[in-house]
Amino acid sequence: MEFKNTGELYDSLKGVVKRGGGRLEVVDATALRGELAERLVYTAVFSGPESRKEARSVIRACADALGIRHASIHNLYEKMGRGECGGFTVPAINIRGLTYDVARAVFRTARKLNAGAFIFEIARSEIGYTDQSPDEYATVVTAAAIKEGWQGAVFLQGDHYQVKLSNYRKDKNAEIRALKELIRESIGAGFYNIDIDASTLVELERDDVTSQQRLNFETTAGLTLFIREEEPEGVTISVGGEIGEVGGKNSTVEELRAFMDGYLDILGGKVKGISKISVQTGTTHGGVVLPDGSVAKVKVDFDTIERLSEVARKDYGLAGVVQHGASTLPDDAFHIFPEKGTAEIHLATGFQNIIYESPAFPKELKEEIYSYLRDNFSSELKEGETEEQFIYKTRKKAFGPFKEKLWRMPRERIDRISAELEEKFLFLFKKLNVADTLEVVSKTV
User: pTM here?
Assistant: First the structure.
């Protein structure tokens, strides 16, 4: 599918785009959205360095010409913090595999529902095991926007740009440098929304809440200052903080105040601070897996969400709290998040599950993947853990090694999987009340 070289790539653009005044103009958008888009994005991911670089450049330039913009959601969140808009919870969607087609399903959903408040994100850990750099991820999502005729803001977010505790203890400065390098790379790719997660540094064994949160708010403040130095002119990057590590104890108002007061004191009013804050409410990433491989029903502490969101908005001007680890929650839980003032909800594993468990997913490929997991990750099998639990826990790590095989699945199979995903996106967007948010996003962002 990819172009053999840059000459072939540019020959294909004749009559479709033209250059003038230092900019690229799309003269035949219909042709661009046909097979050409497929070939461009495949080249941007799987071709050699030169062709890959050129394909990514063309995709970005075409998107710009078509009115597709990488954007920060910061202004919308400020508006939510002032109570000038709300009643919806922004879905932040992590795409681990089949990224182009999953993103297309999201854009189709948004167009059907006139939605504008939704985010594409990838976590620091996911960048590694899915083999998707920020630049690649941004390019593929942007190509999906072109294919589906999207216009307007595209929100790209660095999710859980997390301080790895073991690395921090070994060499604090090296770990912070690594995070700064990732942040700089992400901003360069168009990620204008960055979630800093230094909650791994919280020391619950300390006597007072401020001492417990100190390393967290000091590190988050330092990285916020770095982001403000790196952000492009005219863009205020939306920064998120986190006070409770997902899977740990539920967060409290006291922890929120201790974090925010310490954080804002360091910033000293010199720069914009965070626009939202992640808390722990009883969920875990990926859900709790039962011995048969199914996911246990988890009860979310919605009272905590409501209390902390109210304090976050009224006392600190934030949009509210962020819910992580939510994609495997029961369907009857999602409508409650906007009712309780949740600003943003992160969704990942549930979409991965739809891909793997779809009747359209080739059985032979699935068995090849599962065999690969048994051969390469057997050391992660814990005592007392069933094979079903092991597979469920580790199959996310196959998205990188099997990326091209997944992209090369027969088109009819990919389309059937995409239809299942689109049905899920439609459900979530409706329950989270982000239908008809395109106007407020267009006016605010």
Answer: 0.94
